[in-house]
Amino acid sequence: MAAETDNLKILEACTAAENFTKLYYEFVDKMRHKLSKLYLEDGKLVWNGNAVDGNTNIQKFYEDLPTSIHSITCLDSQPVREEAVGQQSTIQVTTAGFVTLKDRKYPFNQSFLITAKGDKWKVVSDVFRFQAVA
User: Which of 29, 45, 73, 104 is the most buried (most CB within 10 A)?
Assistant: First the structure.
């Protein structure tokens, strides 16, 4: 029975992560003026080493970046054990792909921690990093 419950939680996390990720990159690429709605009020962002606190500051940070087009090539998600997060439904989401900024394409990796707030998922913390060839 426990294995079935764990499998169901994993499936739910995958579905939620896919839906949230699609919405998130749509907002970043086309609706940055609404991006704060996807973060908790005290959400955190680290974008290529630049730390930003608070959903309105995160939205402003993204609004100041050049126009972007994201192409996701990889998505992974895992439910976080509820015992570790105060019984709050939480998912670790990791994406990788390419982002085009000012006609230049960069490989990137992004990791979100999202949590349920009512019937919506909100970003608790977010780390974005360009990837370089080693």
Answer: 45
